[in-house]
Description:
Blueprint: E1 3-7, E2 10-12, E3 18-25, E4 33-39, E5 46-51, E6 58-60, E7 68-73, E8 78-83, E9 92-99, E10 115-116, E11 120-124
Parallel strand pairs: 2-11
Antiparallel strand pairs: 1-3, 3-8, 4-5, 4-9, 5-6, 7-8, 9-10, 9-11
Amino acid sequence: QVQLEESGGGLVQPGGSLRLSCTVSVPRFSTYSVGWFRQAHGKEREFVAAIRRSGSYTYYADSVKGRFTISRDNTKNTIYLQMSSLKAEDTAVYYCTADQGIILSSIYGAEHWDYWGQGTQVTVSS
Length: 126
């Protein structure tokens, strides 16, 4: 089985920074693509960022490109989301996700990912 756990969420002021982490308990973690989605209250879950197995290819939603950075450390079974220049519209529950066989064209849809964490709340407010 695959188990994911996010951490690092909290309250931050607009313009501030925050780093989320997600540990993934699964054999052969390096063979999984991983990503981040977020879900604001009353809205659907939306794609934020993804990174392929090697870490050489990253993908971002237009709304976060240039502000967020996804990375992974395969020696620690961990993925990260470094968030900078945060805006109120970034407020949401952030979920990490993993999939061993997802194809590039499918990464933007939550329904295509196999495994999910429980989520961590990020609130951007003065």
